[in-house]
Design a protein that fits this description.
single chain; about 400 residues; Cytochrome Bc1 Complex, Chain A, domain 1; 2 domains; 4-stranded antiparallel β-sheet; about 20% strand
């Protein structure tokens, strides 16, 4: 995506492979394989280790920053730089296309990731979300922590890492996205001239991913944990029982849901103002909808002195809020403004482009999808989605309470 005059260039190399992909068919052999939880995240860490050293040092030598992250659906590698873009792009491609797993470096990484997992267990914000996902979902692997568990990562071996890599890190399953003041043809020519591994240039059979059938009801309606926090944290979720939703259907559902939450519980809404004035929420409280190909849910939350009271008021008032055509049109303008601001942030733009791409959505379908949202669509979405049987609540309480 050329952005003339933009000083910083941002690139991502992403694969459609995330934490939920723990059971799949290996395209090269046709064999079914179940792998340890957390292996996608583990593999992401190990991709930076090469025989000659850590790739992060190569980016740093060029004055560029780099990072990577694993989510439920995808794994992404990135760099950001103001100079020497072609050299950075070469390093990024080499980083992702040249794995190096050994018994020694895998064993070393197990200790590093074990410390990381234990750190997340001590983070209240992470725990309130993880506990919510376990409460919302009974069987779907989205209920599991992205990093896996200490027990699961201890079973990871170089062999199983290579098998996951060969399955999911294939160009047919990946996306390279570059945004900045650049010449698209030069970028394309550079990629075409890269020395690709022969095996990766060949076509690959479709990746078959196995997921359990998820029941409609939630696993638990209310879960709690005690941690050292000053105020209780609450996260309230509504599971959306959808199956194999992608493309235009997924985008439409996401856009209608976002408009709905803006009308019901945006910072300009009467209900948000009432909750704030009563001291039930602070200015960080918000709601959003997450749509993926095999799962979807809404969540809202933040700090509150009275979790039970907040949950009670929301259960009553969300169903009673009057949704007017004027509210919907106002919120559509707000959503359009939020979309437009993506183009001022290369990182946010790349993230959204990748997220929609792997869900079968083109970034520029958004405007038509938003324009088509009607008052009746939003009312129907509220009535369909906010059902008690689909609601779960996660609370982190202070140790002294």
């Amino acid at each position: 995506m050329p952005r003339p005059g933009q000083r910083r260039t941002y690139a991502t190399f992403a694969t459609y492979y995330g934490s939920i992909d723990s059971h799949f068919r290996v395209p090269t052999t046709g064999a079914d394989l179940e792998v340890p939880d957390g292996i996608a995240h583990f593999l992401e860490h190990k991709m930076f280790a090469k025989p000659e050293g850590d790739v992060m040092d190569q980016f740093a030598a060029l004055g560029a920053s780099t990072n990577a992250y694993t989510e439920y659906l995808t794994t992404s590698y990135l760099f950001s730089t103001t100079d020497r873009v072609a050299e950075c792009l070469t390093i990024l491609m080499d980083l992702v296309q040249r794995p190096h797993f050994t018994e020694e470096n895998v064993q070393k990484e197990q200790g590093i990731i074990e410390q990381e997992l234990r750190m997340y267990l001590d983070m209240p914000g992470d725990r309130v979300h993880s506990n919510l996902m376990r409460a919302l979902y009974q069987k779907h692997p989205v209920r599991l922590d992205i990093g896996g568990s200490v027990a699961s990562i201890r079973t990871i071996t170089p062999d199983v890492l290579y098998r996951c890599y060969e399955t999911f890190y294939h160009p047919s399953n990946m996306l390279l996205f570059v945004v900045g003041d650049l010449d698209p043809q030069q970028v394309i020519d550079q990629i075409a001239e890269a020395q690709w591994d022969k095996g990766l240039t060949e076509s690959q059979a479709e990746i078959v991913r196995y997921l359990p059938d998820e029941p409609d009801p939630v696993a638990e309606a209310w879960v709690e944990q005690v941690m050292p926090v000053s105020l209780p944290l609450v996260s309230i979720g509504y599971k959306d029982p959808v199956s194999r939703l992608e493309g235009q259907d997924l985008l439409t559902r996401e856009v209608v849901s976002d408009v709905m939450w803006g009308v019901l519980l945006g910072k300009a809404s009467p209900l948000w103002s009432r909750l704030y004035e009563e001291g039930l929420i602070n200015d960080r409280f918000g709601a959003h909808y997450t749509a993926a190909t095999t799962y979807a849910y809404s969540s809202m939350g933040g700090e509150t002195p009275h979790p039970e009271r907040l949950a009670e008021v929301l259960a009553e008032e969300l169903a009673r809020v009057a949704i007017t055509a004027e509210d919907v049109e106002r919120q559509k303008k707000s959503q359009w403004g939020g979309f437009a601001t993506l183009f001022n942030s290369p990182g946010d733009l790349a993230y959204q482009y990748n997220a929609w791409h792997f869900r079968g959505v083109d970034l520029f379908q958004f405007s038509d999808a938003l324009a088509s949202v009607s008052h009746k669509d939003v009312e129907a979405r509220r009535d369909e989605h906010l059902q008690p049987v689909h609601r779960a609540i996660s609370v982190i309480r202070p140790e002294s309470s």
